[in-house]
Amino acid sequence: MSFTILGTGRAIPEYVLTNDELSTMVDTNDEWIRTRTGIEERHICKKETITELCVEAANNALENAGVTAAELDLIICSTMRGENLTPSQGCMIQKEIGATCPAFDVNAACSGFVYALDIAAGYFERKRVKKVLIVSMDNLSNITNWTDRSTCVLFGDGGAAAVLGEGNDLLSIHITAVGNDAAIRIPHGTNSSPFYEHEEERAVLYMAGNDVYRFATAAMTNGIKKAVEDAGLEQKDIDCVIPHQANIRIINTAAKNLDIPRDRFFCDVQHYGNTSSGSVPIALDEANRSGVLNKGDIIAMCAFGGGLTTGSCVIRWNK
Ligand code: UT7
Question: 19, 66, 155, 182: which is deepest, by most CB within 10 A?
């Protein structure tokens, strides 16, 4: 047994930061950002906390699934940085939605949602759970270097959740990691020990954009190929691809390399930028709620990010 997706929900902060407003902060312009990334705007937390967004996404997903918080057997939150080091973000969600089940966090950067699906699949396989909530949320504006034009234009805040129930709709899943702190790294930033001898670094994102770009195009092409093969399917059987929304050019390249028509790749990067772990489930929720997905559709999801990690899977949409 694997699982079926019973419902999805997202939470996006209200404030919209446009390319034009960014152009007043760093030496950039709307044309560069659109043509190099496909991003037109992103949402940024002003009043919202990450816990508030997680709870909103969780409640939206529970409502969409017709499941109550009391029915949940497990909560997994994928995030790089929750509200606190402890309690985990998963425990904060459990408290706020009124669930009573175990809860924990997983950090696989932008691949977090697929990693969480893989972990959940193991719990279903071992018959330890009947209902699982996954919430994938990052607040990247908090760790963005707002003076670095090569990274600050790429990211946004927000995330989404999915409620899983018993079923057999996970057809394949594949996760990878290659330990690498040169391509993408976000240091913790603080160390309160008076004994520690290393220099403190700012808690902001460092990225070697071109290296990540090369990694990302290969990861998306190979990840989807592998997940489709492992599912015993052909690429033409895929009705919808939900790719990590980092850069429209990465998605276009994957579409060219694969035997899947470009119009089957769901894209919302223009509105959100790269929201890290929130990216794939936000797109899944948009596809769910906008009627793009039909019962029985075969969906491929694929993510890549810091770690360096990747995650890809094929699921049957049964909603
Ligand atoms: O979730 C995983 C996280 N990350 C990613 O997926 C990111 C993957 N990488 C990328 O998407 C791309 O590499 C970027 C969007 C980051 C960069 O695009 P690029 O086409 O590889 O540009 P580049 O870094 O080669 O820079 C080209 C030029 C440079 O100027 P010169 O040296 O040619 O004069 C940059 O200084 O563009 C300049 N540039 C900018 N210009 C205006 C870099 N950032 C900006 C900017 N506005 N924001």
Answer: 155
